[in-house]
Every structure is written in C-alpha cells, then in structure tokens.
Design brief:
This protein is of the alpha/beta class. Helix content is 45%, strand content 12%. It has a 6-stranded parallel beta sheet, sandwiched between helices. Strand 4, helix 8 (171-179) and strand 5 (183-187) form a beta-alpha-beta unit.
Length: 214
C-alpha cells in the first residue's frame, strides 16, 4: 500500500449514523424554534463538530442554543443508536483487511469520544479500535474544516501528513484533509459527488476502498 496510515471519518463512513443524528438534530432545532429540515441538517452540519451548530444558529438568528443543548441531543442520539445503528456495509471487512495487511489505521471524528465509543460498541466495530486509534474533535481546538484533527491524529500515530489517506463523506471533512496536505477519498454513499469536489478520488462502496488505496 502506498500509504503509511489510513484515517477514517466515523459517522457515515464506519457507522451508518448520519441519517439518525441528522433526523434528530433537525427535529430538536425545530422544536427549539429554529425550523430545520433533514436536508438542511445534512447540508449545514454533516461532518461538523457541535460547536458549528451553536455558531450557525447564533449567526443566523442572534439567539443562543440552551446550555444543555449538547447533553439533551446526545442523550436522544445515543438512545436511537442503541435501537437503530448499524455498521456501514463493508466496514468490518475493510478494517479486517487493513489489520491483516499490517496497515496502520485510526478514526478521526468530529463526534465526541463518547459518541464514537457508543457507535463502535453498538455495531461491533469496537474490536478494531483501542484507545490509541481513536481521535475526536474534543482533542483539538478546532473541528473540521480546520486541518487540526487530522494533523493531530497523524502526529499521534507517528506518520507524516503526506503519507496519510483520509476516508471522508462530508464536504467539511474533505476540506480538512486537503488543508492537512493529505490525500482524501470521498465516499459518495450519502453525499452527492459534486459536494466532495477536490477529493483525490471518489468511491461509492467501502468494498472498493482497499483496491483504491493500493
């Protein structure tokens, strides 16, 4: 393989959480008086850290979200994860192949460490990720589209940015990877290809990924 490290986004790439979390986010914002459709949530917030939700709502409305917004939202999301969450098709097979080939990999997610862990435990992907392979926007000052999270993950894994491949499904994540100086493979299962413009290569199924990375 021509890369020394594969960095996975989590939501929408490893776990099929984006439909769940964006449905609940749109509903909660609407409940609080900020009408938001599922499509709006996908467009504005998919792939971002929670601070972006607060910032955009305040920028657009002049109103701040409640202090307990994150806690309430995450409680709803985690409850839904327990009922509904599944791994993205092919995720376990890709991870198994990378592990068998001895290729280092990790996850770098805009979600909190708790969200990552709940998702991995619920879907059975936790066996592929010990703590040394899990990085969250909580670990850095700025989330995607800033490059900080990907650069932090590469540094902690001991790999130069130019030797990393990022697997992303959001425009914010693609922008972050490019800013970090990394190749980025855009997963178009949920995101139209034109929104992932700038990716090194686009793909539609995780089953294609290991061949693309070689």
């Amino acid at each position: 393989m021509r890369y020394d490290l594969v960095i996975f986004d989590n939501d929408g790439v490893l776990v099929d959480s984006e439909p769940i979390s964006n449905r609940l986010l749109a509903a909660y914002l609407t409940e609080l008086g900020h009408p938001t459709t599922y499509e709006d949530s996908i467009r504005d917030y998919m792939g971002s850290a929670m601070h972006r939700v607060h910032e955009l709502v305040e920028e657009r409305t002049g109103q701040r979200l409640p202090d307990d917004f994150d806690d309430v939202f995450h409680a709803r999301v985690f409850a839904a994860f327990e009922r509904e969450l599944k791994p993205v098709a092919g995720a376990a097979e890709v991870l198994e192949q990378l592990a068998a080939d001895g290729v280092p990999y990790c996850v770098a997610s805009s979600g909190s460490h708790e969200r990552i862990r709940v998702g991995h435990r619920t879907t059975g992907l936790d066996r592929w990720f010990d703590e040394s392979r899990v990085f969250s926007s909580q670990d850095v000052g700025r989330g995607k589209p800033a490059p900080d999270l990907f650069l932090y993950a590469a540094d902690r894994m001991g790999v130069a940015p130019g030797r990393c491949a990022v697997v992303e499904d959001s425009p914010l994540g693609v922008r972050a990877a490019i800013a970090a100086g990394m190749d980025v493979y855009g997963f178009t299962a949920m995101t139209p290809a034109e929104r992932l413009r700038g990716a090194t290569q686009l793909f539609t199924s995780l089953g294609q990924l290991t061949d693309l990375l070689e």
